[in-house]
Amino acid sequence: MEQKTLDLKTVCECNRCLGVRTLHPQATLINLENPGVQQSNVKFEFYAILLIEDRPGSYDCCGRKYYDYTNASMVFLKPGEIFHMSKAQTLPDKGWLLAFHPDLLFRTTLKNHIDDYTFFGYRKEEALHLSQRETATITCCLEHIEEELHHPIDTHTSTILSRHIELMLDYCSRFYERQFITRENRNKDLMKTFAKLTEAYLTAGKADQLKIPQPELFAQKLHLSTAYFLDLLKFETGKTLAEYFQLKRMEVAKKLLVKKEGTPAEIAYRLGFPSVQYFSSLFKRLTGVAPSDYCYSRN
Q: CB 106: neighbour CB atoms within 10 A?
């Protein structure tokens, strides 16, 4: 059975569907008590940020685990994304929806770097879970936004609104980093799995002329969004996928040489180096010895 989707193209349409007054045509803050949406899904054609307040028994809210805070959760949606809370409900019945159109950011500093807030590319199951203190901080930001929305629109409105939104997003970046820390054990397991996937990819002869595999390949196998996977990799290793992959390629080369699973030329070809000369030169620069002498230097 095809699921019905409510396609909200404008902020005004969003306000009308959720029964609130429009204070600004490009931004709104909506209390989500009894949202009353009949469709199975809702599609926002603008930025949407959901603050989902905790309810008794909602321990699995948006990917929340036993090691996460339970005071509230936040989901970030970029324009064009489809959202639903669960099979039983489309929007949460307790919390807030902050929505703003990209045009609000025209001629503001936020327009130039909103893409830096990569959590707009995370899945709902990769939501941000807040402590009581963090929730109070975000609520304070929302209160400032609401206050500005009630101010008569003038030439300063877009700038002030965007700065309040930007400050809130900066806090969310901080809180996501904290969440990576509190999920340390789980993240270490994910990185171990990723290391095995990378090694399997290389030893299977899939590497091609130093090309880096698409991050979607690994994110899918780890059951993560691509944005979350790349941020997690950077947080845990301090490296981009390209940097990590090249280091891992060299680690695998060392293992194959020690096990004598091929000549330097065969290993260079298997791991996707463009030539044995390039492989030998890079290997010697990084290890101090030629590939053909490496196994002896390890004894």
A: 11
Q: Taken in order 221, 50, 102, 42, is the CA torsion positive or negative?
A: positive
* H/E run at residue 192: helix 184-203
Residues 157-188 have pLDDT tens digits of 999 999 999 999 999 999 999 999 999 999 99
- Classify domain 5-182 at the CATH topology level: Jelly Rolls (2.60.120)
Calpha distance 273→253 (Å, rounded): 10
Tokens 């569907």 map to which residue?
17
| pLDDT tens-digit series, residues 78-87 | 999 999 888 7
Phi, psi for 289 (deg, rounded to 5): -135, 160
Structure tokens at 112: 């130039």
State which fold the 186-297 domain adopts.
Answer: Arc Repressor Mutant, subunit A (1.10.10)
Q: Domain spans of the chain?
A: 5-182, 186-297
Contacts of 191 (CB under 8 A, 6+ apart): 232, 233, 236, 237
What SS3 state is found at 259?
coil
- Per CATH, 5-182 and 186-297 having the same topology is answered no
H-helix or E-strand spanning residue 11: helix 11-18
Nearest-angstrom CA–CA distance, 18 and 58: 23
Residue in 51, 6, 50, 46 with CA at minimum distance from that of residue 26: 46
The label of the residue with tokens 């669960």 reads: 86
Its pTM stands at 0.89
